[in-house]
Amino acid sequence: MKEKSSTGIGKPSKRQAEILQFAREYRRENGYSPSLTEIAKYFDISIPTVHQHVSSLKEKNLLTTEKGKKRSIQALHNHKLATVEILLMGLIPAGGPIEAIHDPRPIEVPRNMLSSGANYYALEVTGRSMIEEGISDGDIVIIREQQTVDDGEKAVAYMPDRNEVTLKKIYREKDRVKLVPANKYMEPFYETNVEIQGKVVGVLRKEI
Fold first, then answer.
1. 90 DSSP β-pair partners
2. Nearest-CA neighbor of 204 among 129, 148, 117, 142?
3. Alpha carbon 68 to chain centroid, angstroms
4. Pick the catalytic residue: 14, 154, 168, 199?
5. Would residue 129 show up in a list of annotated catalytic residues for this protein?
6. Claim to verify: residue 104 and residue 159 sit in the same structural domain
7. Is 92 found in the same domain as 34?
8. Which domain CATH number covers 165?
């Protein structure tokens, strides 16, 4: 009998989404599921690490296995769990504002992070100013393109006067914008000219 948690569907990390996609494609091409060894070899990671990812994916109800069978990994085929390709535009600082480094390349993200009728892109985070919002150095943030956000929301903020960009929580005051880090050891700062380039709607965790 297949093992499956009774809890709801969770969101995969970046590596877990890649493992799901690999399992789907492998089964489609070969007619049977990949082994833990084959997954480990493909991603150049250890078998215990693969086992941890598989266990986590089972807990999130993103795949199933059959006890006692070596090739029983099966990614659940739900259109809401499929991946979609968006552009990883480069680096975004979550520390002091610096000029963004642009190096566009496509990446796959879980479709359930996105909603229809909007444009999305991704940025790789550098720095630790947003760690109290669960965004660490090396994580990838999913951004929905929009020109405004509500106070307290996390956004990509461009400062034309300095030609710099940063990732911060945004608060509007009478004649200026307060950009607030989510790190108790860092201070907020103020700008009078800020353009919002998008809102953070999801995070793909950096694999350790």
1. 102
2. 142
3. 33
4. 168
5. yes
6. yes
7. no
8. 2.10.109.10
Give pLDDT tens digits along the chain (208 positions). Answer: 333 333 456 778 888 888 988 888 888 788 788 999 999 999 999 999 999 999 998 888 788 887 777 788 877 655 445 677 788 888 888 876 666 667 778 888 887 788 877 889 999 999 999 999 999 999 999 999 999 999 999 999 999 988 889 999 999 998 999 999 999 999 999 999 999 999 999 999 876 5
Residue of 129, 154, 169, 199 marked catalytic = 129
- Residue 157 is classified by DSSP as E
Answering whether pTM is above 0.90, one says no
Domain boundary among 35, 54, 81: 81
168 in catalytic set: yes
Number of domains the chain contains: 2
The range of the structural domain enclosing residue 16 comes to: 2-81
Other Cβ atoms less than 10 A from the Cβ of 112: the count is 18
